[in-house]
Specification:
about 80 residues; mainly alpha
């Protein structure tokens, strides 16, 4: 059973999102592991998102935004 699919390569939008997420996580002063616990997502998945190798679903975006105490829009737009 495959739980996720690795993308062929990140595009500019993926890279910007990854950078934004990492910046917001660091501003919140939490580690990838702490974000994973707060969101009930795996640390591996958080790392893949932050390296633009995976795209989160809307449900995952909600969890991440809630954990970081930001709006989903803050994750998607500069």
């Amino acid at each position: 059973m495959v739980f996720f699919k690795i993308m062929k390569g990140p595009n500019l939008i993926d890279l910007r999102f990854a950078k934004r997420l990492k910046r917001l996580r660091k501003q919140a002063d939490i580690t990838q592991e702490e974000l994973a616990v707060k969101t009930k997502l795996s640390t591996t998945f958080i790392g893949l998102i932050e390296t633009a190798k995976r795209r989160p679903s809307l449900a995952s975006l909600r969890k991440i935004a809630n954990a970081l105490k930001v709006r989903i829009r803050d994750l998607l737009v500069d």
